């Protein structure tokens, strides 16, 4: 009765259509810019991760990581139709007890580019990265943010060389000139400074002051094959790591290495997957030992590196590979070692049980390292997706909750690490019941 009277009053006074119009306008604003009204004040308070020798430290306790890769977060946050995937993925990670996600903080040239050209940025995409960081904070997830790609995907060093060539300042058309061309080095430094000093529009915090960011990664999988000695890449790492630290002393920094041993390493023959690995211009120990590099990174892809080994031989290599690098962290580097990518492709010969065996092996090496307070500080599955992302799958991706056995292994690892060094405040709500002893 009241509703009917109110309708007559609105129509009779000529207010009905203006109100409907205003409501429609508000609905449009919400659908277009709804994230501006997201309440980011409810985020969990995070502290900066520190390093003490071979261990990460959070709030005075050793911190061993069960993490994952979702490189696509910024790209999908830039489109309002796919933006909900970011919250879905981060919430799912938190529910599994995962603590750190590694993702791209770059997209150079091309579709949804963050950096359109040297020093020119797309504010819409920067706001997408703001959203990723703010959403991670709300879910108690820390981020490793990678700053450029050695590969062509999302621009990478190839795009930087192309820009310099188009502007007539390039020394060479070689992709590896990214590492030694003065103009390109200036491009990259300008990019790094812009990202590190960016003020998040949702939280009001500059990236360099935000503890949601676990660490910066200089470059994903650097290789400089035109200089197998490794000198060119080493000079670049020294210069860029020093530059990052001159702007941001609060965050940890890593290079982004795959972990190969260079031509002068005593491990080049016994530990590398094959002979080619020593000639890629990188060296795990030499590149990681710099004082401006806080921890080392390693990738584990036995089925990608070997073409003629069976699965059992690949498992054996993976265990040996990981233990070799943990030994380096303990004895030579005196720093933590993160296995920031590991995976098994779901190619034609793939069997789901094999992936679980490989996953279990990697997680067990990390668990034993945590129990013994060694330098093997964590592992990151490559890669996690959400539903309807088939075209982003590179043969390594999974939707973890669609594979119960894999999901269980990952969550059990979170519980096992928590049992050794305790639950983080961000994990308590998700794991206190799951990890409780069952009668």
TrEMBL record:
InterPro entries assigned to the protein according to its UniProt record, in alphabetical order: GH (IPR017853), Glyco_hydro_5 (IPR001547), MAN-like (IPR045053)
Recorded catalytic activity of this chain's protein: Random hydrolysis of (1->4)-beta-D-mannosidic linkages in mannans, galactomannans and glucomannans
Domain Glycoside hydrolase family: 47-384
GO terms for cellular component: extracellular region
Localisation: Secreted
GO terms for biological process, alphabetical: polysaccharide catabolic process
Keywords: Glycosidase, Hydrolase, Membrane, Secreted, Signal, Transmembrane, Transmembrane helix
Pfam families named among the record's database cross-references: GH5_mannosidase
GO molecular function: mannan endo-1,4-beta-mannosidase activity
SUPFAM superfamilies: (Trans)glycosidases
Hydrolase is among the record's keywords: yes
Membrane spanning stretches: 15-38
Superkingdom per UniProt: Eukaryota
Family: Belongs to the glycosyl hydrolase 5 (cellulase A) family.
The protein's name in its UniProt record: mannan endo-1,4-beta-mannosidase
Organism: Anisodus tanguticus
Species classification: Eukaryota, Viridiplantae, Streptophyta, Embryophyta, Tracheophyta
């Amino acid at each position: 009765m009241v509703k009917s009277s109110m309708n007559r009053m609105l129509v009779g006074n000529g207010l009905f259509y203006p109100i409907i119009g205003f409501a429609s306008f508000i609905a449009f604003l919400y659908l277009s810019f709804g994230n501006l009204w997201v309440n980011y004040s409810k985020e969990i308070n995070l502290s900066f991760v520190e390093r003490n020798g071979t261990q990460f430290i959070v709030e005075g306790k050793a911190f061993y990581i069960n993490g994952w890769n979702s490189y696509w977060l910024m790209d999908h946050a830039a489109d309002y139709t796919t933006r909900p995937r970011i919250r879905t993925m981060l919430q799912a990670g938190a529910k599994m007890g995962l603590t750190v996600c590694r993702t791209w903080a770059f997209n150079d040239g091309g579709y949804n580019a963050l950096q359109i050209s040297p020093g020119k940025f797309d504010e819409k995409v920067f706001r997408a990265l703001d959203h990723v960081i703010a959403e991670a904070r709300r879910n108690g997830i820390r981020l490793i943010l990678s700053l450029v790609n050695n590969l062509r995907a999302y621009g990478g060093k190839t795009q930087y060389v192309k820009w310099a060539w188009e502007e007539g300042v390039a020394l060479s058309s070689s992709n590896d000139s990214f590492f030694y061309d003065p103009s390109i080095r200036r491009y990259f430094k300008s990019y790094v400074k812009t990202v590190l000093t960016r003020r998040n529009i949702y939280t009001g915090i500059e990236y360099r002051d935000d503890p949601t960011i676990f660490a910066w990664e200089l470059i994903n999988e650097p290789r400089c094959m035109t200089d197998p000695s490794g000198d060119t890449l080493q000079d670049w790492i020294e210069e860029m790591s020093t530059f990052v630290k001159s702007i941001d002393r609060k965050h940890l920094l890593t290079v982004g290495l795959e972990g190969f041993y260079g031509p002068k390493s005593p491990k080049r023959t016994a530990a590398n997957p094959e002979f080619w690995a020593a000639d890629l211009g990188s060296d795990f120990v030499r590149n990681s030992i710099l004082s401006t590099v806080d921890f080392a990174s390693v990738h584990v892809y036995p089925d990608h590196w070997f073409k003629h080994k069976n699965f059992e031989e690949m498992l054996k290599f993976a265990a040996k590979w990981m233990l070799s690098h943990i030994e380096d962290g303990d004895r030579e580097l005196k720093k933590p070692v993160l296995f920031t990518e590991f995976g098994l492709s779901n190619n034609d010969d793939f069997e789901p049980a094999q992936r679980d065996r490989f996953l279990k092996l990697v997680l067990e090496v990390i668990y034993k390292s945590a129990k013994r307070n060694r330098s093997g500080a964590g592992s990151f599955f490559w890669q996690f997706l959400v539903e309807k992302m088939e075209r982003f799958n590179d043969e390594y991706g999974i939707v973890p909750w669609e594979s119960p056995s894999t999901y269980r292994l990952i969550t059990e690892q979170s519980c096992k690490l928590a049992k050794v060094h305790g639950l983080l405040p961000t994990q308590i709500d998700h794991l206190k019941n799951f990890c409780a002893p069952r009668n």
